[in-house]
Structure to design on (303 residues):
């Protein structure tokens, strides 16, 4: 079942209360903003990932839906887009599709994913060319690959103004202890890791550590690579979903993530405008309280 089918099934299964959720108020609300601790700059809590959907070729029929996604993304008040040279054509596609106005608004995050200082410099230079930017907002060491060599360059580039922030990333629970060690030692501006209602391990160490040390956080795999949609298929939303303006599980799952005070931004990937709008709603209106957050975890993990 794809997400479109899932959304349809969820709508049919939703309770009357959830169907009557105060969506008009939530839809009109601005996206929640969070501060980047290093500077105090504020960014919207819902971003956009590019792994998968943006890995397309030059065909107009493949790129047109992505242009629609980007138009809706910026119209909805979002700004942060995360990509990587690891994602085949994603950087090039993004660079081609971002208009001049989008480029002015965008907070672009990409990564270095290679070994060796010279190789890293060459790859990051190429990324900036593909993205059509003289400066990127955030450069991250992807999956901690050749960390020490790449961090040296990132610090140099930040001092030179070629990047605004630097960070580190990974996507597995098994990596989180290593991420924590790097955070304590290197004090990056950002760290990216996995966190969801089904995989809450980041609550134990990473999220509190980032809050304590003033490190911004990007969350990947908020839907557990789509597995949560399979788990929740046909399940009615909990009654309290209406109270916080949610009419889909995607919105509820994203509100679970961004309601944690140490989360700066979550970056679900999508190539469909419908899903993008659904995701943006997860960053607007009231957020779940702690009791509701635990109820979301219980509902997901009981599936």
């Amino acid at each position: 079942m794809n997400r479109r089918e899932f959304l349809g099934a969820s709508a049919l299964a939703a309770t009357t209360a959830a169907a009557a959720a105060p969506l008009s108020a939530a839809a009109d609300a601005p996206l929640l903003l969070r501060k980047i601790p290093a500077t105090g700059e504020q960014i919207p809590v819902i971003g956009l990932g590019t792994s998968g959907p943006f890995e397309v070729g030059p065909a107009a029929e493949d790129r047109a839906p992505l242009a629609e996604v980007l138009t809706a993304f910026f119209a909805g008040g979002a700004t942060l887009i995360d990509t990587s040279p690891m994602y085949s054509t994603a950087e090039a596609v993004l660079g081609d599709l971002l208009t001049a106005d989008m480029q002015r608004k965008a907070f672009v995050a990409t990564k270095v994913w290679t070994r060796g200082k010279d190789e890293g410099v060459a790859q990051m230079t190429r990324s900036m060319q593909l993205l059509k930017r003289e400066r990127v907002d955030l450069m991250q060491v992807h999956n901690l690959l050749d960390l020490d060599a790449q961090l040296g360059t990132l610090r140099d580039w930040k001092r030179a103004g070629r990047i605004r922030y630097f960070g580190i990333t990974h996507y597995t629970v098994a990596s989180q202890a290593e991420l924590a060690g790097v955070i304590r030692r290197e004090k990056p501006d950002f760290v990216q890791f996995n966190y969801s209602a089904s995989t809450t391990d980041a609550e134990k160490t990473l999220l509190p550590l980032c809050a304590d040390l003033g490190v911004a956080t990007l969350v990947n795999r908020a839907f557990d690579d789509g597995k949560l949609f399979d788990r929740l298929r046909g399940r009615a939303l909990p009654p309290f979903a209406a109270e916080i303006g949610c009419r889909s599980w995607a919105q509820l799952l994203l509100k679970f993530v961004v309601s944690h005070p140490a989360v700066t931004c979550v970056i679900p990937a999508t190539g469909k405008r419908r899903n993008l709008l659904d995701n943006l709603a997860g960053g607007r209106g009231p957020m779940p309280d702690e009791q509701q957050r635990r109820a979301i975890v219980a509902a997901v993990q009981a599936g």
